[in-house]
Design goal:
alpha/beta, 7-stranded mixed β-sheet, 10 helices, 11 strands
């Protein structure tokens, strides 16, 4: 068996790249990623918090962080390397509670005026490194999630919401990133998925590949995909991810 190339790092988005949106990873994909780890260094970089990534990719936290060389949740604001905790950052300490409360109050007022096919619960999720804003509510069912996704394509609910926030909070140092099917993320400028690259800057990698599905401008993979430090690959599904990775490394 050829020796593992420790100079090449492959970073993967989660939703739409390794799994269908908010679905569990298939055993076939888990086996594929284990085989890839025998050839190159492999990492995850997801916008969700660690618990949500565990729900999709691992049986528990220990299983997840030991299945990959790097695990970067919340864009790398929470980082693990080799199964060990590396570091974390807090949006609360960085932005301060006054700005956060103004932002949350504005979002709640804006969402109160939106008419959707349904609304459920958990409209703003406070994470360590970001806020996740969800007009339909994160407690919606899979069917309601898919219905909102189609509704949003036609009515630009998230796009218009982000535009209003950009105007209201101009100059406050906030970045807005639409990802997945039902929500968008809000975080300090520079805290997009490129943040994780700082953790590997001095690790001796000669090549860093990134695979993601939301690589268009405004998508939550765009910044890291287009960063000169990475070779970006746009995928359309988990099957497409396997196809492109196989062509490169198998």
């Amino acid at each position: 068996m050829p020796e593992k190339c420790s100079k090449t790092l492959c970073l993967f988005d989660v939703d739409g790249t390794l799994t269908l949106p908010r679905q569990k990873v298939t055993q076939d994909m888990k086996d594929f990623m284990l085989a890839l780890r025998e050839k190159v260094v492999v990492g995850l970089v997801g916008g969700s918090d660690l618990n949500k990534i565990v729900e999709q990719l691992g049986s528990n936290q220990t299983d997840l962080i030991n299945s990959y060389d790097y695990v970067f949740s919340e864009n790398g604001l929470v980082a693990y390397k080799g199964g060990e905790f590396l570091s974390e950052q807090s949006i609360q300490s960085y932005l301060g509670d006054e700005l956060l409360q103004d932002f949350i109050n504005y979002c709640l007022g804006y969402m109160a005026k939106i008419k959707l096919p349904v609304k459920r619960g958990t409209f703003i999720e406070f994470r360590k490194g970001m806020l996740n804003v969800c007009p339909v509510g994160r407690s919606c069912s899979q069917k309601e999630r898919e219905e909102f996704f189609q509704f949003d394509k036609t009515h630009n609910i998230r796009k218009d919401f982000v535009a209003a926030l950009q105007k209201q909070f101009e100059g406050k140092g906030l970045t807005f990133s639409i990802g997945g099917q039902i929500s968008f993320d809000v975080f300090p400028d520079g805290w997009d998925k490129r943040f994780c690259l700082g953790h590997v800057a001095n690790e001796g990698f000669e090549t860093i590949h990134f695979f993601g599905d939301k690589t268009m401008a405004g998508g939550n993979d765009f910044e890291i995909f287009s960063d000169p430090r990475t070779i970006g690959h746009t995928v359309t599904s988990p099957d497409d991810t396997k196809k492109q990775v196989s062509e490169l490394f198998f």
